[in-house]
Amino acid sequence: MLIFTVGDVVSDSGIRLLEKTLRPFKKLKGIHFTIVNAENASGMGLVPEQADRIYNAGADLITLGNHAFSRREMLSYVEDQPYILRPENYTHYNPGKGHGVYVAENGQQLAVICLIGRVFMQNQAENPFFIADRVIQKLDAKIKCVEIHGEATSEKSALAWYLDGRVSVVYGTHTHVQTADERILPKGTGYISDIGMTGPVDSVLGMDPETSVERLLGVPQIKYKPASGACMLQGALFEVDDNTGRCLSVERIRLS
Ligand SMILES: [Fe+2]
């Protein structure tokens, strides 16, 4: 099975690039299942109309992270929409779910688990290692993908080693910076610390550089705004053996 994971979509221009490039790329590569992190489609959070555009662009599943509920509209949307995951290790006060079993285009099942990190992250999430243990135990799909939405490469990498051989893929999101550490771990889990971002190239993580600098200089009353200009789509492509669930290859993707 070929699984394509797309890095955090930022702003309307990121969605527009996805609309232009995702379907042709899926066709070119013969991709069977596509997971798109979209929690920054509105800068902070996303709204149902944007989620619908992302599905229409070719996403099979949307994942969220620390901005899952930055927009109120998502509180009810995640209850009704089965193809969206918020972090599994969020407490039970959060609506929606953090894992699911889906059928890919080749007819094979795959399980996806969305987790959020706790190192350098401000959240009340439960320990992602223990939650992963609990969820993986009850899933019998041969192919299992884990997204870890987190700031620290150390935490994401440690989780991948912890789950090596028990899941097919572990990949990171959230930093918006693609890492060059893609590999297959000794027991067959494909891994990359961060798959990157889908949004404006000349930016600070998708945001306008000038306002980002001003905020850090201490200028008062400066709000982030999305950057303009050309966009890139970043992600990773994982090939997984249908019979064993082991990852066969990991490829970093950057389209512009
Ligand atoms: Fe995030």
Structure, described:
The chain is an alpha/beta fold. The protein has a single domain, classed as Purple Acid Phosphatase, chain A, domain 2, CATH 3.60.21. It has helices at 11-29, 48-56, 73-80, 128-137, 153-163, 209-217; strands spanning 2-6, 8-9, 33-37, 61-63, 84-85, 99-103, 109-116, 143-149, 169-173, 183-184, 190-192, 197-200, 231-240, 247-255. Strands 1, 2, 3, 4, 5, 12, 13 and 14 form an 8-stranded mixed β-sheet that branches. Strands 6-7-8-9-11-10 form a 6-stranded mixed β-sheet, with helices on one face. Helix 5 (153-163) links the parallel strand 8 and strand 9 (169-173). Helix 1 packs parallel to helix 2. It is globular and about 55 Å long. The model has no long low-confidence stretch (mean pLDDT 97).
Task: Give a short overview.
The chain is an alpha/beta fold and 256 residues long. The protein is built from six helices and 14 strands. The protein has a single domain (2-255), classed as Metallo-dependent phosphatases (Purple Acid Phosphatase, chain A, domain 2), CATH 3.60.21.
Q: Can you tag this structure with a few keywords?
A:
single chain, 256 residues, alpha/beta, Purple Acid Phosphatase, chain A, domain 2, eight-stranded mixed sheet, six-stranded mixed sheet, 14 strands, binds fe (ii) ion
